[in-house]
Every structure is written in structure tokens, then in C-alpha cells.
User: Fold DNA 5'-3' helicase from Sulfobacillus harzensis.
Amino acid sequence: MTAIDAIEGVLHVGPYVVVDLETTGLDPYRDAIIQVALRRSDGSVWSSWVNPGRRVPDAILRLTGIRPEDLATAPDFREILPTVREWLQSGRVVGHNIAFDLAFLARHGLFAAESLDTLEWSRLAFPLRAHHGLPDWFPEEGDRLHDARVDTEMTERLMRAIRDKMSHFSRELKRDMAYFLGNEWQWWDIPFDDQGHTQKSALYRPEPDLFQAESLAPVEITADPVEWLSPHGALADAVDGFQARPGQQRMARAVDDALSQGDILMVEAGTGTGKSLAYLSPAILTALRQGERVVVATHTVALQDQLWGKDLPQASRDLPIRTALVKGRGRYLCLFKAAEVVQDTPALGESRERRWALATLLSYIEATEIGDAEEFPLKNEAGRAIWTEVVADSQACAGPRCPFAGPCFMRRARHQAESSHLVVVNHALLAAHAANGNVLPPFSHLIVDEAHHLGEVLERSLGFELDAEAFRRRYRDVMHTRTGIWARLALPPEFLGVRHSIQERYQQLLDGLETLGRALAEATPPGEYDRRAVRVTPARWELLQEQGVESLWQAVNDRFRELVDETELLWQEVQSRQNVTENASWLRYRQWQQDMVELAVGMAAWGQVVDERVSWWEMRTGRDGETIATWRWAPVDIAPILRENLWDGLDSAVLTSATLTVHGRFDYLQTTLGIPAERLKTLNVGSPFDWERQARLLIPTDSPDPADNSYWERLADLVVEAARRREGRTLVLLTSYRAVEAVAWRIRERLEAYHIRTLAQGVDGPARRLVGDFRHDPRAVLLGTMTYWEGVDIPGSDLEVVIMGRLPFRAPGDPLEEAKQERIAQRGQSPFYRRSLPEAVLRFQQGFGRLIRTTQDHGVVVVFDPRIQPGRTRYANVFLASLKQVPRVAGSQADLLKTIEAFWEEHHAHSHK
Assistant:
């Protein structure tokens, strides 16, 4: 029995009626209702099928379990409308994501005087839950859900759980809920006491920081990491379904040797190797034996969560190791700021969205132990706005003087890291440490997973960006008459003139940036893309001088300097008169002022043509058709910076990924990341998959050149025919949004004839949501840009065909890339073979890796680019060699479609033996 099952009985609330609808789709203006269910608070239930008068998509029939014959004899909605209206007048209308149901009912003239959304209240009552859908709450119901009758029953059960959870809020939290939510909270009729509550929210218990770091003394331990990973080792009992893997053991031995011998090891280990445990096991033992800290850095949140929530607890079970998960300062909630926001926000006059965001924030603070942005449950606009007001930052921090220093989430994470043997971070935090130092506690050993991303993350960290739209948005936030920085500052009367002067300077700076942006827009060469980047070369700078643009840039620098000088003077003057370091409003002012300093320094360096960095501007078209400018610069070569700031200060390091080599060599990433050759060791573990049994690489010999007029039609033909044969289950990897649109509109209607959906990134929704839709119903074709070439994990039979539209070379026109290639050419080397080709091959391998994720997966990859045909280009074999273990079939498009059928016939024959 689950906790929610135990909460039964009558709900002590006002009268209500739970409603749930099933529909032919999501759009109330185009789709129709096919089922209605209603459940009153007195226990009575009413439901009916509804004839929509149109064909219902197969995906909806499968989802709901409704049969066409059920609908054929069902009444039209107009026939049952009086009954539905009568039931809706029974009390407060309740539903899970009630806005969806109300929108459909409104199309029929049915409205609710009062409504309650259990999805909304679920997020408030259970803020640490990752998912709040009914299938997530009631997984045991399985296929019964999406029957409206069952959904109303489950919604009522969830209401009981919500009320029970909120009755256990602290007295202080209940008080604030009543204040911000008013009658909506009162309807639940929750006793105003501390029923069952044992701990107050951190927001209601300020206390000093009394932390003292624990030393990392060496521990005597004789375990061997390779033995741990053996069939009878320590992990065999700790990991469910553990299987000893030779590749994993080879990698663990190499990592252990590198950590003990002071090497920098690069390990390529394919998906399925189990590389996380292969490096965690020796890392844990090294940290304990030597009493030294090991930092593990990942690129994606998904891998970080896997390490922290699964792999690390398994690998460290029964060992005296202390571990910590640390994120960037901007990922943590500041209790000081939260207290001020709550105190300064009146319930009257605030929008419902903001009051709900504040109430959810308060519930989250009482529930959380880590105060992490990733946990915060409210992802809508109001939730994001509240988070920006309470997020921790480096300047607006009173440090140990803060009244919340004790429970401070950021300080606790940092303290935990200072006392930990093993610290998990992301690439961005590691990059910040490499750029500035002192971001992380001192560490001797480093392990970088997803290491092929490290270079690009470091380039961003070491570079500069000023976006005109973001600057304008920040200006509005700062100058807001009620919630802005100036509205909350308690300024002595004699400084009001200074405030006016600063505000005037700020406005002049904004005007100057917009004037400069318009001038650069006129100086931008025309292009076919919405986003255009222009590199500032010596010749371009001379042209900008002639056009008067350089003087506009200089005027912006002057405005920056004047603003920075005046804001610093005000800070110093006020600081000499009052204790501003313990005032959240003044600390927020200081953060803004320091941000202006950083932008001023960066903008002054922009445009200066020097060998070490490259400057450029970008133009893009905004939602309203306006042109938006962005100013950027970045180092051309991060290798010497990394060597000096990172590798030379470490006793050892390990870099690993499924894709580190090009043509079997590690040279490309070794050079890019500045890894000293004299310390380098390498290992290619290979893949545990049976490629002969599991996969085929298909190369059409009649695919047209991508520049040919017939290219898109032929590619669309291939997608439709492949998807038809596999009933969807197809991922199409493309290299631009225009390519996605070009293929999507050519295949959509043709696939609908086979009841296969088209899910196009940027057309049908954002990338992450479409992947979820595809997993839920794989009778679809998923099309995406570079986002989908890696990081998409769809194991099993949901994905069986991957089609690459083109080889993933970087599009021309990237100023930083041009500068890098020029640097290579200056050394007398080929930019294509030293830079463009290796980068494309690594991305190509990542794209192929979307297909086979486990030893049970099977499928084909089709590369619809004639440049990969052997003999067609000098570099085709470099791509093919990267997948040399995968059986390759070349032939006409028609023959390859037959190959797909034959491959699956063979697979099914083997699986039934």
C-alpha cells in the first residue's frame, strides 16, 4: 500500500465536482470531446462517451482505450450538455490540469464560477516531486488511466493526499499560505496548528554559520577497484542485475594506474561499458587511501543526477567516504533574498500568478535540503521571475554575517565540498574554476566525463557576451517602479540627486547600445539566416571607423565608465554611513553595479584586434521582427590557458567519453584541450555491443548532392518509406531548423495516411517535450537539429531507424571557428583535416550512438549524404573508419529499404529461437 492509498475517508472541504474529459487532441478550437466523467463530493458519479462526428486519431484511441464502436452510437455533446451543466453547478469544479478541461467546456458555453487545479496544488504541497501527472502519482493503475472515469477517481484520491500533506505544514507556513492564497487556501479547511510537524522552514529559523571543515586523513584500505567490478566483488551485491564487463575492468585498471602514477589519461569507452563505475571505484579508493580530494565533472544534468543519485551510492556503500554535489552559485536559493521578497510583497494588488509563485516558493523552502534551481517545481513565467529575485550570487551576499548563514544552501554545499573526499560538479563550474581559481576547494585529482564538451564550455567561460535584449530586460527589472532595485533602496535625502543622475546615465547607456546596434545592423552583410555573425577583422574595423560606428562604440564605453564611476561612488558613500553589507536591497544594488563593471570591461575589450582573442557581433530577428544585436569575444586558443590553470596544478586527471578519437587517435582533443604530451596515457576500451547482430550502417549510392533541387524530395521519400516499414520509430538528424522545416512539411501528410505522427523540433514543440512525446508513442518520426545528435537516450524498440540528412560539418560563418582555422593555417597545417573534419567525425559518432543504447537494442542508421560514399571524397573513409565495427551496406535507396526489411526479419527469426 502506498502513502496515498492510506489516505481515505471523507474530504472535509466544501462541495465540489471533479471533472475529466478525453478529447481528440489538445486544441479546444479544432479538437472535440469524446468522453466526459463527473464525480461529486457526495460520491455520485456520471459519465458518457461523446460522438465527435469525426475520425479519432489512432494515437488517441490507443491512449484512452476507447473503441470506435463506443463512439459511433454515443450521443452528440449537445444532447448531454444540460446534464453536464447541472453537475458543474454542484460545487467547486476540480480537475487535474483543469484549464485544459475548462477550455473545452467553454467552447460549449459551460463555465465554472470557482475551480481548483490538483496539478497546481500538487506542485505546492509536494514541491520536491519531479513529476505530478496522474500516471506518475498512480503508476499501478497503468492502462486504466486516460479513461475519464478512472481519472476523476484518481484526482479525488490525490485531493486527499494534498490536504493531508498541507495539514502537516508548519504553523508559520500555514500562516503565509493563508496570507498569499486567501480563500483558495481557506477552502481546504486545514487546522491552524503544528499537527505532526517537527521542523520549521529554514526561512523561519535564521542561525549563524558554525561550520568547521573536517580533514581528509588517509584511510587504510586494501581493496582493488578491478576486483570490485568482478563477478564476486563488492559491487556485485550493491548493484541490482550487476554483470561483470571486461571493458569496464580494463578501464578501472587504467584509471587506478593514472591516479596513482600522476598521469593524464584519456579513455574512449562506448555506451554500455559502464564507465561511471569504472572511474568512480578507483577514484573512491584513491581519495580514501591518499586523503586527497577527487573532483568529478560532467556536462549534462542527467549524468550528474545519475552519478549522485545512483552510481556513487552504489560504488561507495559501506565505505567511510564523504561526498558532495556542488553547482554554480546561481543555482542556489538565497534565504536572505527570499525573506525580503516575502516581506515586501503585499497580498493585495499582486497578481494571482505571483502570489502562487511565492506560496510555492515558501513550500519548497520548507521541504528542500539543498535549495537547488533544478528542484524548484514552478517552471512557468511567474516561477522563473520569482527565482531570479531569490537566486544567490557572489556580490549580493553577506557571507558569514548573514542571519541565514547557518541554513544557507550555497554555504552548506560549499562546506560539504570542503570536507568531502569526492566532489561532483558540472563542466561550467570547473571552467569557472579554471578561469578564476578558488571556485572549488583545493583538489589533487580530476575526472572529466563527457569530456568532448569541455572545450566549448571553457570557451564560453573565458569569453564575453553582451546581448541587447537581455540588457534591455535587465534595465526594466532594475528600474521597475515597485519591484526594481531603486524602489527598494532606503536612500538618505541628500543622495536623491545622485540616484537621479545614475538613472539618467543608465538610460543613456541603454540608448547608446541601441544606437550602436542599429548601426551594426546596417553594417551587417545580408545573409539567408535569421542569425548572422560578423567577425571584427582589421579591415572590418577600418570600415567601421569610416562609417562612424567606431565612435558610437566609444560613446558606449564612455557611458559605461560614467555609470560605473557614479555607482561605485554612491556605494562607497553609503557604506561609510550605514551597514549596507547586511541589507539585501543594497547587496542587490552591489551585484548590479559589479555586473556593470564586468560588462564595461568586456565591452572595452570588444573590437580590439589582438592575436589572443577574436571579437564579433551577431544580429538576429526577434519575435516582433526587430533586429537584436549581441557583442561577443572569446579566446582563439584555450590550450595554453588550460595547461597553466588546470593540468599543471593537478597530480592526475582522467578524461572520458564515448567519442574522443578520430581515426583511432586522440590527437584532436589532446591538442584542443592543451593536455601535455609527456603526461598523456590513452586507452580505447571499445564497445560491448554485438554490432553484427544489432546494427547496420546503410549508405545510399544514389542520394543526390545536398545542393541539388531533388535532395529534399528524395530525403523525404526515404524518411516516409523507412518509417512506414517500422511503424514510425524513426529519428531524423538534421543540421539546421530550415532543414527540419523542409523535411517536416514534405512528410507530414504522407505519414498521416499511415497513422504516423511527425514531431518536428521548433515546429511541433521544444526539443525535450518532443522526445517525451516520442517515447510515449513511438509511432512517430522525430526530426531535430544538433540538439538531437547527442544526449537523446531512447533505448529499446521505441527507436529503430536513425537517418542523418547530412554529415554534421559546422556551418560556415562562425567567427571563432574562422579564427581557429586561420591559426592552424598559420602553422602550415590543414584547417580542414586538423579542425573541421575531426569535429564532424566526433559529432557523427555521437549521432550514430543515438541508435544502440543497450545490448538488447537493434536498428539501422542511414547516412543520406553522397560525401560518405567510399571513393566519393578523400575523407569518406575517416567517417567510415570511426564505425569500422558496424556492418556496412551500400546500395540504391530501393535496395536499402529491402535491407531494412531483411534485417528485421532476421532479427525476429533469431529472437524467436
